[in-house]
């Protein structure tokens, strides 16, 4: 039940990885001579990529359709998602076997408002097991769509919950243990927008696909035959040499307003981007993973590691063409190693083509929404997480082991450190966190709001503050993990329970860990009708 499927032939096996990890100190000492040896081992084959100036911008940017929904008599908003196989032509004359939700590739954008009860009926039309995880969503663990809520082929899973968090750009993707990288790479990903009154009251662009545009960036490696092959790899995982945005290669967007809001999602499996514009113009970052910032962050670049989001508003002049680019992301590591992990790469991403006359947009407000600061002094528990190799605190993911037990109603400080010389990041399910410090210093304005995923530069300590207010469940865990999906699939993930005060368990050993022989279908609602579940 919990065993992982065998790795696809294209994916380096764990043995290769372990020798890689052992080889890293050697690499550091021996420098470039060792690099050549390393390269010939085929593990660090990724070479520098620069697509600036060579992207044609010949294709209109696809905008994912808004997901239809219906309202049930009790007010529940119901969506339907069907993960399925399909085919997509990314290059003239080739077709690629892809996967999508309700279509060939990617999925529709779900939209729901704070306070609404939602249900998503997910029917798996694939030949293999999947799950659907609502990345960034605050919801009960049985509805979370992590590895404990598998959906077998032809089965329907119907999680429901009440939207109880600020307006934000969230997303959804598969999370079956050991298979997440392959399934996301094949195209299973979509957006989930949350709306609320505070966001609606602000003068911000919000016409979907017109002046409020999703920008899902992926470097899916598609070879000349149209097959998805992930042979260029860094330690981070597969690194594609060409981008697709909302599934569109070489995209342009016609702009009709003097400002456009772009909701950037790094849905790549391994690559970190540093987004900005070709003329280095400033823009306003208005949101991070979990919602709007308290005030706009005026900047010319925003770094996003896999899973992270940023909402930006950029001003446009009539008649101009300006390109969104990604230039060398600062990975906080030795240049020679960064270069093997996408740190030297540059991409043309999306061309904005302004009409000759533009409708005026309102200026971005100076104040956005109140962001209630979590105080470090409120933290009753401090936990430390050290990422090393593909382990967290020396442990590899075990679906039958609970790693941490949190008491509901408490505030905690999580001290997260990447102990390696290579990149990782860190994603927490259930709650949005705040960043108290980075390397002992106050974080920059881009990290001043709600986050669920954060880049971990090597050897830097990140102090995160988390408030666990509800959804206690002594059986079903939430996950925390590296969101470099190859790492996650290879065990760089742990599980935490949120329990009622009386239920604090001893660790390790996890007396409450789920027993899968007793729950052959995992946890979470199984049927579309009459599950009567409750939290
Ligand atoms: Cu975006 Cu645990 O995942
Ligand atoms: Cu990692």
UniProtKB/TrEMBL annotation:
The keyword rRNA processing does not apply. Residues 86-197, 380-499 form the Plastocyanin-like domain. One of its GO terms (molecular function) is oxidoreductase activity. Residues 84-106, 503-535 are annotated as: Disordered. It holds the Pfam family Cu-oxidase_2. Keywords: Metal-binding, Oxidoreductase. Belongs to the multicopper oxidase family. This is Copper oxidase. It comes from Mycetocola zhujimingii.
